[in-house]
Amino acid sequence: MQAHDQMYIDGAWRPAVGRDTIAVVNPADEQVIAHVPAGTAEDVDAAVRAARAAFPAWAATPPAERAARLTALADALAARKDVLAETITAELGSPLPLSQMVHAGVPVLVAASYAELAGRHAFEERIGNSTVLLEPVGVVGAITPWNYPLHQIVAKVAPALAAGCTVVLKPAEDTPLTAQLFAEATEAAGLPPGVFNLVTGLGAVAGQALAAHEDVDLVSFTGSTAVGRQIGATAGAAVKRVALELGGKSANVILPGADLAKAVNVGIANVMTNSGQTCSAWTRMLVDAERYDEAVELAANAVTKYVAGERVGPLVNAKQQARVRGYIEKGVEEGARLISGGPDAPLETGFYVSPTVFADVTPDMTIAQEEIFGPVVSILRYEDVDDALRIANGTVYGLAGAVWAADDEEAVAFARRMDTGQVDINGGRFNPLAPFGGYKQSGVGRELGPHGLAEYLQTKSLQF
Ligand code: NAP
Ligand code: MG
């Protein structure tokens, strides 16, 4: 795999201050495919200084010109679609068709959506005798995870640039090659030097330095609740803006009148995609007592289509594989009924986990409460609609979910009572403009579309 042994700072690839490197591993065959520099606080500082220096001119650039650069960025990503997909497959392990369609495909749409929004957003409004200016927040520190490596970068960088902010990105240590390709795309798009900067490195070193840097105005983080809590506390102490997109334990609620087969099949597919490494995955399937056995049988059947090493890739690394297998063991210990899969590794090489379905899961079990981040579905039984709502809302998370009912009206009535940031109604389609983010401990702030743009703006009111 092609890799830069440098950081992208102030419009050029530059040597890192230190000599440490990170080995990038292909999780499907466990081979080292590249090395990238492990940045330190000094590299982060150089990148933040470049972003600060570039900020006044970028903030003053007319929105139409920022829009033109974002269109060029979307085009540059589209032109690199094949190499992006191959790289994501190599460092994340996702099957190539998924990398092509979702991992490489969706970010082009998102970048293009921000080109469009930058061009037509009202960065000024009138309220009575006041003119309210919507101004860029400043220098953004973006810290991203590995599970949708390009999407999560674009979902932060594109709105930040549209708003007039400049950015320093610290991508996940497991997927830095995708981030380097993204940096190349920003260069090809003709962004002025310093507007986008990349520092690869470890979370505890480079990530920590970026989150704590006093000249960063906003930290946007996606990842685990444990790290998010720490970043929120650091930002709070410094009185700076923070956006946190954390975990989830979303419910797939199948109401009595729903098309059961469709709801179960789509629900299983939703979790198995990306080996279950999706923060918004509907990992809890809720079915009424009357149709419970039928749903379990449908699920057992549906999961046979998902084979590790074929449609289901490995997990990203050995640690995540061990973690997920540990949760499956815990489910068995706590008395859930394994109807498919289990804790044993399905292949000798690669960080694979068997696609797993548990029945007879009760709401208090660990596997019904904690984010597993692997190809594991729990099927829970409810007695009536209020019971279903109690179970659906009965975790610390609130990121996403699904409701299936006899008609949209009934599904919407249920969705209105859910404590969650996004709900798919009777199999609704993905919308790259819909705000995405969490209620409760799933996070703070929203990404995508106009709501995602608003995160990077601050308001100033002028009275006349
Ligand atoms: P993580 O540690 O929270 O990683 C997310 C990002 O934060 C990475 O870039 C990481 O760098 C960085 N980071 C780590 N420690 C940091 C610190 N002290 N200060 C600043 N940045 C820091 O997540 P993970 O360890 O990769 O995954 C663990 C669990 O998190 C998963 O099992 C899953 O439950 C959850 N998760 C959720 C999402 C989501 O989309 N909400 C995504 C990924 C993971 P490194 O890459 O060097 O660690
Ligand atoms: Mg980590």
Automatic annotation (TrEMBL):
Q: Which InterPro entries match?
A: Ald_DH/histidinol_DH (IPR016161), Ald_DH_C (IPR016163), Ald_DH_CS_GLU (IPR029510), Ald_DH_N (IPR016162), Aldehyde_DH_dom (IPR015590)
| Segments forming domain Aldehyde dehydrogenase | 13-461
As recorded in UniProt, its EC number(s) are 1.2.1.3
Leading EC class:
oxidoreductase
Q: What is this protein called?
A: Aldehyde dehydrogenase (EC)
Q: Name one GO molecular function term.
A: aldehyde dehydrogenase (NAD+) activity
Q: Which UniProt keywords apply?
A: Oxidoreductase
Q: Does the record bear Transcription in its keywords?
A: no
**Organism placement in taxonomy:** Bacteria, Bacillati, Actinomycetota, Actinomycetes, Kitasatosporales
Q: Where is the active site?
A: 245
Q: Which Pfam families match?
A: Aldedh
- UniProt keyword Oxidoreductase present: yes
The similarity comment for this entry is:
Belongs to the aldehyde dehydrogenase family.
Name the domain of life.
Bacteria
